């Protein structure tokens, strides 16, 4: 079994990197003077963006990867870089919804690049101008760090975007899973459970004969669009790989959270005693406030949107998270209705139509409230009706003829790309950046200074909002109380748990590019033995007492993560002979046993000088000649007759322990 | 241990499907249907047989699809009888079932004026208890019971249900279709290790030909009618058949550029289309693939029908409920349209006796007496739809063969046909098969496994290849070895991996399975090897015969090595190259080891009378282990 804890860890940095915002084309800056001064738009490099994916991907022998688990559509964007490597043959598991959304996002990215290529001309050689050392040397420090990495070793990680063919090829290699569908890889059973972050995002359980592992990616307990974090499905796993990196972006005071991490009333170390009370408490803790706060954020954003359009400004929302976009859409249109404003909303992206259509046909991955809409025959998201009522208009590109005919300002536009370097967002920003009534809404993770540099000076208002993107730190502990693992693997950056406190589980920390070896919890595999095999059992009690044993023969099956022994086509031998012996033979007893079987023998010392020194020998004359040479560790039977040899063998077996 | 199946409905009949299966202490109710043909107590399964307390007696209920004969009794069972445990069904079933139930309730109460069995409120409350599941989602009902739905293709959301408790597992198919149709895919299931399959057998003896011919027939009949200015009435269930036929008509209308309006009777079915649009991922691959550009359930040619349009002039096609013209709107329209011979009524495949649909299908009546005051003249054309979303006999056989369970129970079929199918399953597939009547229980044994801890060495040894080399001549155990000297034995390699180990039970410890070599160490004992050795005299005579035939020049003084080579040659006739190893100094077959004995006093030489006399005797010193006892003596006999 190759896919043990250690190899998973090797996978791990990869997964975490992918699930985070992928390292995108940080705009590189050309430095003219040596002095550090604020960056301006002229420092930027005007070229087709390149990408960084998993650090040191090129150092990996990809053919050694057996399984790749993708937890979110965002976490899939780097996948074609991996799948196009020669020799890559791993199984890739993705939920159906993630596969579809990931595909659309990748296709959109590729199409935006096609467009940008028209602007910058065809791809330069595999080594673009800005990568030349002379150029890099001129960069201001902050941008040189981006280009080269803090330790200067990341220059080799830059890659041009994959092609449409790479995406197609990648998707062909992907195996799509339903919610909590069991899939088998070798002896492992792999299942995906919703993580609540967005539609189709998931956590994983990996179940094998040697133990059970749960992989927790960025998860949200209560979501207003996606199916909630199904932590119940993760129960009963020995090892938890905690891979929610949202704490790195969290705006909350981590220090404060840290203090809250050990509520004195509810101690970490003894949850197993008061299991039920503890779990109930923990469950109630997990469900508080998440959703409320997010709803408030949406309402806040929406009110600003209304304010802007009221004064004749337009609003640009280049947010990447699908769930946020869908909710914001509902929120804003409701607010418009309340204010009796007739302002058109546009969604412009090459995949928008498909994306919206898709969100309305996956009730299986949506939260309870949305599922209720299905059951009462209403569309799952508000956009269906908004389109019917012609309040929302969906176009593949800004140059769509229909858009030009339909266009109306002020308006509200949802479009990619959040980096503000690609897609329709660039055009709209150029159009509205000078308008003080217009509004730009960004996610918090973005470096706004850098992102807005080409559009300076900006009169446009900018609102930056951070949305919940994972498990709050104070919820990690109640969560673990419910999951009751034996081992937890945290990222190195998450040193939450006070080592002086004893916990019910052991903690390991993993970090990038390092293999972590976790002691196996079960060194033995479980074997299931079909009961019909027991009819062939020939139990033998040992002299040591308390122990009995039997030979076992069958056909071993590995199915659904289990080892099973069935009778199959194996012939059960009727004649059972002992094949292994232990103990030391008592010669007197041997003679007695032999004579009881009609064999007469005499004891004599071995012929001196021969090899068989230190051996005792029993000579048999009757019924025919035979010789038994007995030493400390072995016995040799010599007879001219098969039958006699066989009887002697049985006799020796009876004075030794054996099976 | 056993699996008990108590058939509460659909035993040797079609209607009120309901089977209670008890596996290892868990009791699952599969389907909770209603019989459309009865109006008395027989319409519901006899729930009293379950036991006094439903919540305690049943672990859960699983509903396979939204047809009334599978779900019709559910609101009654939960709201009137008081069952409050978990109920599982797929997302589409949960979404569409209330429509079916409400439709039925309305027809029963408002049109037929019957006493209400359950209210709208009951339906709503009942559906709240339902836990929706996705296909293939593995649901842990409780610690021991696992269920999983597989695509059944019969109607939107129809599922076959896999249930597993401990080591015992079974599948309840519900209704299924093994061939894809216009809007649904074919049933799909994994190869599972099953003790029992309970399958429907509606078409237990029918083999159906291609569906396309029958679809064409239907379209031609409709086209002819509307071309002649007639009206087409398609009485159908709100869900399933209506959508399928509508896709068919939409497509045909598009191709033939027809402008004749297609109507859906008020509300219900149009609303159903809304559901279908959201549940498109449960339809066929083709419908799914095109959904983002055109959702197949966005019917462009379909309009809403109003009662005032019944007598409007001009041709049209109308879908109206209920399906069997048992009352309601379809009956109302039928009354108006039946007297005209230009009109057409198409009937679904199955109608319950007593309904007008049944009368229309069983002969060509010219008059139908609705009640003692109303008589309808039937002059319109009648077309019977012959495609049905049930599998045919071949499909059932294919599924049973694919799943290869240890036992099969047939439900949802007609008794004589079930008997025939049972015979086929038993004789062709060798699987015991039963078709119990209602309220009968079938008990079958179930597989069990004992668990033990297996050592790595054991598991490793199981995956070691176990190559057996054999020549065809060696294979032949009956001694008819080819005597032809030119016979070239063919080498055969087999790799039958046999897991062999030792099961060790120690008091208060978990049973362990180890490899035999691990045993002494595990017990803290020294291994004691017991071997065989025999320094046997070479029967030169035997060998000389060979010498003379092969190389007549050899004398008695041939070297010892030559003797060994002669033996080797002889053994090579018996054993394949793969198992015989010639190391020059010695030969080896499995653990059997032979060399020319050079010692004067070999301890393994027995001084038998006769051998001693030959002073210059040559000895073959042999040793072997007990595993190769038989083989050893065979070789010695050849020395």
TrEMBL record, chain A:
Keyword Acetylation applies: no
GO BP term, example: snRNA 3'-end processing
Subcellular location: Cytoplasm; Nucleus
Cellular component GO terms, alphabetical: cytoplasm; integrator complex
Keyword Transmembrane annotated: no
SUPFAM superfamilies per UniProt: Metallo-hydrolase/oxidoreductase (SSF56281)
Entry keyword set: Cytoplasm, Nucleus
InterPro entries named among the record's database cross-references: Beta_Casp (IPR022712), Integrator_9su (IPR027074), RibonucZ/Hydroxyglut_hydro (IPR036866)
PANTHER family: INTEGRATOR COMPLEX SUBUNIT 9
Name of the protein in its database record: Beta-Casp domain-containing protein
Organism: Rubus argutus
UniProtKB/TrEMBL annotation, chain B:
Superkingdom of the source species: Eukaryota
UniProt keyword Methyltransferase, yes or no: no
Gene3D superfamilies, A to Z: 3.40.50.10890, Ribonuclease Z/Hydroxyacylglutathione hydrolase-like
GO cellular component: nucleus
UniProt KW Signal keyword: no
Main location: nucleus
Subcellular location: Nucleus
One Pfam family, short name: RMMBL
Similarity-based family: Belongs to the metallo-beta-lactamase superfamily. RNA-metabolizing metallo-beta-lactamase-like family. INTS11 subfamily.
This protein's name: Cleavage and polyadenylation specificity factor subunit 3-II
Organism field: Rubus argutus
């Amino acid at each position: 079994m190759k896919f043990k804890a250690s190899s998973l860890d090797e996978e791990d940095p990869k997964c975490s990197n992918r699930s985070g915002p992928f390292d995108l084309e940080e705009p590189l800056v050309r430095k003219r003077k040596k002095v550090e001064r604020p960056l301006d738009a002229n420092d930027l490099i005007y070229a087709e963006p390149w990408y960084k994916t998993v650090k040191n991907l090129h150092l990996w022998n990809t053919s050694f990867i057996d399984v790749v688990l993708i937890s979110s559509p965002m976490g899939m964007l780097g996948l074609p870089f991996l799948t196009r490597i020669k020799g890559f043959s791993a199984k890739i598991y993705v939920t159906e919804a993630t596969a579809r959304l990931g595909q659309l996002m990748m296709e959109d990215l590729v199409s935006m690049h096609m467009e940008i290529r028209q602007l910058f001309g065809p791809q330069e050689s595999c080594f673009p101008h800005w990568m030349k050392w002379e150029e890099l040397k001129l960069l201001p420090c902050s941008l040189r760090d981006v280009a080269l990495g803090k330790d200067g070793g990341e220059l080799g990680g830059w890659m041009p975007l994959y092609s449409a063919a790479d995406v197609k090829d990648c998707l062909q290699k992907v195996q799509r899973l339903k919610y909590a569908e069991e899939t088998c890889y070798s002896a492992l059973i792999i299942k995906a459970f919703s993580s609540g972050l967005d539609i189709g995002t998931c956590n994983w359980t990996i179940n094998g004969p040697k133990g059970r592992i749960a992989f927790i990616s960025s998860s949200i307990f209560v979501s207003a669009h996606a199916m909630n974090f199904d932590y119940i499905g993760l129960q009963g796993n020995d090892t938890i790989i905690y891979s929610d990196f949202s704490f790195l972006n969290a705006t909350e005071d981590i220090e404060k959270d840290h203090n809250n991490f050990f509520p004195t009333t509810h101690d970490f170390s003894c949850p197993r005693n008061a299991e039920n009370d503890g779990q109930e408490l923990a469950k109630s803790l997990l469900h508080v406030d998440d959703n409320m706060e997010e709803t408030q954020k949406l309402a806040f954003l929406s009110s600003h949107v209304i304010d802007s359009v009221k004064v004749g400004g337009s609003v640009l929302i280049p947010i990447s998270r699908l769930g946020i976009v869908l909710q914001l859409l509902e929120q804003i249109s409701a607010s418009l209705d309340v204010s009796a404003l007739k302002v058109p909303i546009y969604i412009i992206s090459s995949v928008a139509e498909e994306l919206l259509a898709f969100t309305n046909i996956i009730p299986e991955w949506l939260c309870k409230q949305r599922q209720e809409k299905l059951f009462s025959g209403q569309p799952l998201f508000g956009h269906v009706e908004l389109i019917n009522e012609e309040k929302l208009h969906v176009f593949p590109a800004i140059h769509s003829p229909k858009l030009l005919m339909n266009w109306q300002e002020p308006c509200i536009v949802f479009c990619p790309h959040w980096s503000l370097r690609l897609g329709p967002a660039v055009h709209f920003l150029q159009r509205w950046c000078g308008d003080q009534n217009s509004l730009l809404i960004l996610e918090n993770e973005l470096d706004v200074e850098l992102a807005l540099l080409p559009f300076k000076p900006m009169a446009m208002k900018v609102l930056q909002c951070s949305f919940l993107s994972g498990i709050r730190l104070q919820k990690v502990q109640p969560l673990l109380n419910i999951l009751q693992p034996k081992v937890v693997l945290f990222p190195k950056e998450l040193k939450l748990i006070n080592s002086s406190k004893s916990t019910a589980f052991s903690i390991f920390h993993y970090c990038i590019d390092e293999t972590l070896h976790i002691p196996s919890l079960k060194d033995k595999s479980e074997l299931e033995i079909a009961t019909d095999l027991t009819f062939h059992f020939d139990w033998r009690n040992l002299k040591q007492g308390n122990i009995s044993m039997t030979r076992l023969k069958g056909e071993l099956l590995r199915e659904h993560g289990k080892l099973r022994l069935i009778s199959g086509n194996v012939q059960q031998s009727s004649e059972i002979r002992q094949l292994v012996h232990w103990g030391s033979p008592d010669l007197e007893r041997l003679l007695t046993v032999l004579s009881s079987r009609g064999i007469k023998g005499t004891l004599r010392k071995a012929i001196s000088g021969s090899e068989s020194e230190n051996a005792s020998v029993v000579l048999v004359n009757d019924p025919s000649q035979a010789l038994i040479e007995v030493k400390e560790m072995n016995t040799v039977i010599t007879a001219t007759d098969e039958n006699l040899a066989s009887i002697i063998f049985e006799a020796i077996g009876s004075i030794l322990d054996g099976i | 241990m056993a699996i008990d199946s108590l058939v509460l409905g659909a035993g040797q009949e079609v209607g009120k499907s309901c089977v209670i299966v008890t596996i290892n202490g868990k009791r699952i109710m599969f389907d909770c249907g209603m019989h459309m043909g009865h109006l008395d107590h027989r319409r519901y399964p006899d729930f009293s047989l379950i036991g006094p307390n439903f919540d305690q007696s049943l672990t859960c209920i699983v509903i396979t699809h939204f047809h009334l004969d599978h779900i019709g009794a559910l609101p009654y069972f939960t709201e009137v009888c008081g069952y409050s445990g978990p109920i599982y069904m797929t997302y589409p079933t949960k979404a569409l079932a209330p429509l079916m139930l409400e439709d039925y309730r309305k027809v029963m109460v408002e049109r037929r004026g019957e006493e209400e069995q359950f209210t709208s409120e009951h339906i709503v409350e009942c559906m709240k208890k339902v836990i929706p599941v996705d296909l293939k989602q593995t649901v842990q009902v409780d610690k021991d019971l696992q269920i999983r739905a597989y695509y059944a293709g019969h109607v939107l959301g129809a599922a076959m249900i896999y249930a597993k408790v401990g080591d015992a597992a079974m599948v309840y198919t519900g209704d299924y279709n093994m061939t894809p149709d216009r809007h649904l895919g074919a049933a799909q299931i994994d190869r599972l290790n099953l003790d029992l399959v309970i399958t429907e057998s509606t078409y237990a003896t029918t083999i159906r030909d291609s569906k396309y011919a029958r679809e064409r027939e239907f379209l031609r009949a409709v086209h002819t009618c509307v071309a002649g200015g007639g009206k087409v009435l398609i009485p159908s269930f709100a869900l399933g058949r209506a959508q399928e036929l509508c896709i068919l008509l939409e497509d045909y209308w598009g191709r033939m550029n027809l402008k004749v309006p297609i109507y859906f009777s008020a509300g219900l079915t149009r609303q159903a289309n809304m559901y279908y649009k959201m549940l498109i991922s449960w339809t066929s691959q083709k419908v799914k693939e095109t959904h983002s550009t055109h959702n197949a359930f966005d019917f462009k040619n379909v309009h809403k029908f109003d009662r005032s349009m019944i007598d409007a002039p001009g041709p049209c096609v109308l879908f109206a409920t209920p399906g069997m013209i048992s009352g309601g709107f379809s009956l109302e329209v039928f009354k108006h349209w039946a007297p005209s011979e230009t009109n057409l009524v198409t009937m679904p495949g199955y109608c319950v006796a007593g309904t007008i649909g049944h009368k229309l299908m069983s002969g060509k009546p010219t008059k139908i007496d609705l009640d003692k005051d109303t008589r309808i003249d039937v002059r319109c054309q009648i077309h019977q739809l012959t495609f049905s979303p049930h599998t045919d006999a071949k499909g059932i056989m294919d599924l049973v063969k694919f799943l290869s369970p240890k036992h099969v129970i047939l439900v949802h079929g007609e008794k004589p046909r079930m008997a025939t199918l049972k015979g086929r399953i038993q004789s062709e597939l060798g699987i015991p098969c039963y078709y119990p009547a209602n309220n009968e229980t079938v008990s079958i044994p179930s597989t069990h496994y004992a668990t033990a801890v297996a050592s790595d060495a054991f598991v490793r040894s199981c995956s070691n290849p176990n190559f057996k080399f054999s020549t065809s001549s060696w294979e032949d155990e009956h001694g008819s070895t080819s005597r032809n000297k030119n016979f070239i034995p063919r080498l055969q390699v087999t790799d039958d991996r046999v897991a062999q180990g030792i099961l060790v039970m120690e008091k208060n410890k978990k049973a362990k399975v180890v490899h035999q070599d691990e045993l002494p160490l595990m017990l803290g004992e020294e291994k004691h090897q017991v071997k065989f050795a025999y320094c046997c005299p070479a029967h030169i005579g035997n060998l000389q015969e060979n010498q003379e035939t092969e190389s007549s020049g050899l004398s008695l003084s041939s070297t010892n090595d030559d003797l060994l080579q002669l033996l080797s040659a002889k053994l090579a006739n018996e054993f394949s190259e793969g198992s015989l190893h010639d190391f020059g100094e010695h030969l080896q077959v499995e653990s059997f080891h032979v060399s020319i004995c050079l010692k004067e006093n070999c301890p393994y030489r027995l001084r038998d009378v006769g051998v001693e006399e030959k002073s210059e005797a040559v000895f073959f010193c042999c040793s072997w282990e007990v595993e190769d006892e038989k083989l050893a003596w065979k070789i010695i006999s050849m020395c």
